[in-house]
């Protein structure tokens, strides 16, 4: 087998994987956006991380790292979120960085959006899986995650 090219079966598998992932994510994002006004990757991702990883407060660099975004992308997104009253940014007293703080409006928004998000993920993905599917996908995710961190 030539390792420089994907054969037809490999190509079909790869395109199918990408296409289905995109369709599922698009449906989840659409439901979340239409029902809550939050974007999945940006708004929801930031707010959930603030609550789950930082009890409402994280350094901006911690958000960059956890979201795997560039500093610039996150900074621009946080500016839009600040304008909507979802977060505040405050320079650290040490002068080394910025804290991102969830506002009461941001906390209310993330609390209201979690059930919508969970319902969409179940509807478009989890409800279609068997126990064996879940086990296989989990093993694949662990293996590829380990491989990508080596």
From TrEMBL:
<feature type="domain" description="HTH marR-type">
    <location>
        <begin position="31"/>
        <end position="134"/>
    </location>
</feature>
<dbReference type="GO" id="GO:0003700">
    <property type="term" value="F:DNA-binding transcription factor activity"/>
</dbReference>
<dbReference type="InterPro" id="IPR036388">
    <property type="entry name" value="WH-like_DNA-bd_sf"/>
</dbReference>
<dbReference type="Pfam" id="PF24034">
    <property type="entry name" value="DUF7343"/>
</dbReference>
<dbReference type="InterPro" id="IPR055767">
    <property type="entry name" value="DUF7343"/>
</dbReference>
<dbReference type="InterPro" id="IPR000835">
    <property type="entry name" value="HTH_MarR-typ"/>
</dbReference>
<dbReference type="InterPro" id="IPR036390">
    <property type="entry name" value="WH_DNA-bd_sf"/>
</dbReference>
<protein>
    <submittedName>
        <fullName>MarR family transcriptional regulator</fullName>
    </submittedName>
</protein>
């Amino acid at each position: 087998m030539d390792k420089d090219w994907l054969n037809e079966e490999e190509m079909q598998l790869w395109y199918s994987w990408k296409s289905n992932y995109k369709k599922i994510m698009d449906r989840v994002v659409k439901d979340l956006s239409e029902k809550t006004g939050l974007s999945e990757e940006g708004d929801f991702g930031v707010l959930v991380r603030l609550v789950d990883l930082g009890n409402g407060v994280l350094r901006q660099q911690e958000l960059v790292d956890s979201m795997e975004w560039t500093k610039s992308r996150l900074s621009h997104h946080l500016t839009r979120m600040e304008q909507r009253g979802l977060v505040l940014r405050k320079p650290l007293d040490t002068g080394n960085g910025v804290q991102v703080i969830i506002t009461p409006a941001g906390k209310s928004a993330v609390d209201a959006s979690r059930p919508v998000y969970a319902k969409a993920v179940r509807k478009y993905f989890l409800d279609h899986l068997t126990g064996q599917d879940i086990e296989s996908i989990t093993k694949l995710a662990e293996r590829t995650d380990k491989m990508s961190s080596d």
